[in-house]
Amino acid sequence: MYNSIVIGSGIAGSVVARQLAEKGGHKVLVVEKRDHIGGNCYDRLDAYGILVHEYGPHIFHTNMEDVFAYLSRFTEWTLYENGHQVVADVNGSLIPIPFNLNTLHCVYDSSMADELEKKLIHAYGKGSSVAIMKLRENPDPQIQAIAQYVYENIFLQYTMKQWGQTPEEIDPAVTGRVPVLISYDNRYFQDKYQGVPKNGYTELFTRMLDHENISVQTGTDAKEILDFQDHAILLGGQAFTGNVIFTGALDELYDCRYGRLPYRSLRFEFAHFAQEDFQNGHSVVNYTVSEEFTRITEFKHLTRQKDAEGTTIIREYPFAYTGALGEIPYYAIMNAENEAQYQKYKQLTKQYANMYLLGRLAEYQYYNIDAMTKKALDLADQLTGC
Known about the structure:
By secondary structure, the chain is of the alpha+beta class. It has helices at residues 11-22, 65-71, 101-107, 110-124, 132-135, 141-163, 172-175, 201-208, 222-225, 250-253, 299-303, 336-349, 360-363, 369-384, and strands at 4-7, 28-31, 43-45, 51-53, 60-62, 77-79, 86-90, 93-97, 129-131, 179-181, 193-197, 214-217, 226-229, 232-235, 238-239, 243-246, 263-273, 284-287, 295-298, 311-320, 331-332, 355-357.
């Protein structure tokens, strides 16, 4: 008999399962709907021997020493010496993003860039980070001109493609993740540790779930083995009194009885080329003013893989999630109306004293890998009393 059942084997489910098994001595069953573990971090070798991220690029980045140390138990790392860097294709020119002082000097001539740099440093301080919507509020006409350039050429169309909304309609927690940096820092993230697992995420998850107290059942919907009755969760027709940690889409667990929660989904288009390089050494190029796709990732540059010929890329096309077969909900569309709808589903869960919600889908929130790892560790501590 199991002490805990974990629904989902992504970062949330795998971390909490390992901790419950290892620290708490729980017999844990991990139930995964897909035919593989790892959730959206799942990676694999393609037909050309190139390691690709099946559901789009995932870069690990953190300042949390405990999280980095924990995940390092299960993988070595390919760390980016100069951080993860992204460029934007703006009318055929590649410029560093987030917009920073290097970008400023790419866009303006030298004398104008020098003058504008001084104004930005005076207004916000050297080394600071300013949200684009905040920069637009500055009364200085020249700073407003910079803000307008960033807004129109980097932010507006890309944001509308990604979210299907105007920036003003998007939750400030989302727009706040798009800064202007008053520095010469080209890194996309400013965290101490940045990189990818040396041999891939799938190997990391395989090692994490490799424990004598953990059983993994893939290709199985949770409702095939669990029966969510009023005030009781049944396993094999009997009330299950152990922990149930749910990491999936909460509205779909309850058959969308209050309507489907809005998400953005992605369509991926993979392509392979018999050449050594596709985008001049850049791992990620965002298309901020053109194209239907949002970005192209070239995997060899992302993973630093050296032992394969040719190169494989992926293009990402966002669209509104409908729940149709094959679609995957990726990004919760967070606003007051959608949060109120989510709370109705969360309220349904309160009838189960032994059920815990964890993860992007179950909590209708956005989490980076490090924050999700930390939350899973904390939940495991709570459930084991450690």
